[in-house]
């Protein structure tokens, strides 16, 4: 989830999911996708903060790499920093183009936002982790591979009024909560879990 500060308030980047997708076609969503094998081996220009592992466990680094790669593929925006001298540049799926010019993913820019497990009544289920990053850390022009159309920065106040699917509404709530928190609380924050209770989702605070 990319967050941009503007004179009119915070805004998030969203796009319309392609109609060819089985899950939430033609819906407004955040960039994202699944972890690929290559994501487990990607070096970082700066590693993700320890808060990511505290929230998401031993797969946190791969989740961070996947989030950065998918964001680049779907939006054209790189969350990257120059690679240290002599660093190995990744060549796995989706990474060769990302690392062109000698950059590596900037894991230190990521914040754990929340984990969401879709309820049993969902036609397609997933166990997703959402991460937050400041738009000031990305470079490039909006474009991407076409999986998301009509990409635009949507003011948070406007996004909260749109007809969004439940996962997107949950994420917007977490972004708003993060913005309200004091800097010290943000640094110590661990991602809550949203899970099924009856016909809805409930927020389970981290232990």
Keywords for this entry:
alpha+beta; Nucleoside Triphosphate Pyrophosphohydrolase; 8-stranded mixed beta sheet
Give a summary of the structure in a few sentences.
It is built from six helices and eleven strands. By secondary structure, the chain is of the alpha+beta class. Strands 1, 2, 3, 6, 7, 9, 10 and 11 form an eight-stranded mixed sheet that branches.
CATH superfamily annotation: Nucleoside Triphosphate Pyrophosphohydrolase
| CATH hierarchy class name | Alpha Beta
Distance between the termini: 24 Å
State the helical fraction: 25-40%
Structural class based on helices, strands and sheet pairing: alpha+beta
* Domain unit count: 1
Mean pLDDT score, rounded?
91
Number of helices: 6
Share of residues in strands = 25-35%
Q: Classify the fold: give the CATH topology.
A: Nucleoside Triphosphate Pyrophosphohydrolase
């Amino acid at each position: 989830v990319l967050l941009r500060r503007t004179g009119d308030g915070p805004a998030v980047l969203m796009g319309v999911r392609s109609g060819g997708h089985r899950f939430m076609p033609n819906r407004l969503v955040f960039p994202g996708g699944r972890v690929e094998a290559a994501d487990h081996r990607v070096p970082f220009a700066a590693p993700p903060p320890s808060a990511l592992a505290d929230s998401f466990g031993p797969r946190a680094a791969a989740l961070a790499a996947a989030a950065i790669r998918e964001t680049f593929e779907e939006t054209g925006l790189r969350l990257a920093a120059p690679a240290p001298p002599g660093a190995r540049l990744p060549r796995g799926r989706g990474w060769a183009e990302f690392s062109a010019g000698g950059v590596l993913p900037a894991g230190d820019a990521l914040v754990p936002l929340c984990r969401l497990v879709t309820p049993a009544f969902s036609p397609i289920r997933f166990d997703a982790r959402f991460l937050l990053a400041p738009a000031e850390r990305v470079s490039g022009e909006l474009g991407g591979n076409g999986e998301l159309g009509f990409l635009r920065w949507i003011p948070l106040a406007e996004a909260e009024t749109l007809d969004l699917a439940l996962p997107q509404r949950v994420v917007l709530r977490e972004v708003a909560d993060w913005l309200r928190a004091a800097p010290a609380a943000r640094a110590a924050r661990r991602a809550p879990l949203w899970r099924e209770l009856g016909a809805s989702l409930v927020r389970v605070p981290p232990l």
